[in-house]
Known about the structure:
Layout: H1 5-10, H2 16-27, H3 33-40, H4 44-56, E1 73-81, H5 84-96, E2 100-106, E3 111-119, H6 123-129
Antiparallel strand pairs: 1-3, 2-3
Helix pairs in contact: 3-4
Amino acid sequence: MFMPPSLVSRRPFLLDLDRRSAHALQLDGRASFSAIASVLGVSDQTVARRYRKLRSSGVRRVVGVPEAAPLGQVHWLIRLGCVPDAAAPIAAALARRDDTQRVSLMSGGTEIVCFIRAPLRAASCWVSCRRHPGWSR
């Protein structure tokens, strides 16, 4: 894919090191830069510098999310097939819900993928949503 030089210079370049350090933080979100550096075989200054660069550019974000089960909640990954004209309004409605964490349109606008964090008792609500006229059968 062609990218104009002006965009390339503004986008931070992701190194293999960045991906491996992100993986390390996913495994242990409280791992120190020195612990990550020793596992990756680089200096802790290198890990810290790349972390700060990616964080300040918005590529890497730090988000604290409590575990769902102790709170009586579940995580759901939902994939919905929709008729083309209905996908965008349904996705917008899902995005307005408090329990929706992420919504994406896929497959040329005929599928929606969303992540839901809901109370265990919410299952009946989602089952009833299947009756929405815009969802394909």
